[in-house]
Design brief:
Shape: globular
Strand content: 15-25%
Low-confidence stretches: 1-5
Strand order of the largest sheet: 3-2-1-6
Number of strands: 6
Mean pLDDT: 91
Structural class: alpha+beta
Number of helices: 2
Helix content: 25-40%
Order of helices and strands: EEEHEEHE
């Protein structure tokens, strides 16, 4: 897409984890990988990344001691780029809330 060119739709898919959420995909509420036809490989990566959050992040205590939060965030940014490639230009993919 060229700079200044508008998207055909205003759809925004956000990639972030939330407590007890099965998937880190949010557009019209919680979505699943199947909703976007994501590849099995990417779906597995998203699931593993989300599982790391569920296991290592506590809502009161924060990240588990020794857990690589910076690496986890970088993985999330990379996954957002992969999701963007798979869903195409019709949906803007954003990492974070």
């Amino acid at each position: 897409m060229e700079p200044g060119q508008e998207r055909a739709s205003n759809r925004v898919l956000r990639i972030f984890c939330d407590y007890d959420a099965e998937w880190p995909l949010w557009e019209f509420g919680l979505q699943s990988a199947e909703d976007y036809g994501l590849s099995e490989e990417l779906s597995s990566k998203l699931s593993a990344w989300n599982e790391d959050f569920q296991v290592h992040m506590h809502w009161e205590r924060g990240w588990s001691e020794g857990f690589g939060e910076n690496k986890w965030n970088e993985t999330g940014r990379q996954l957002a780029l992969e999701v963007q490639r798979e869903v195409g230009e019709e949906i803007l993919v954003v990492y974070g809330v």
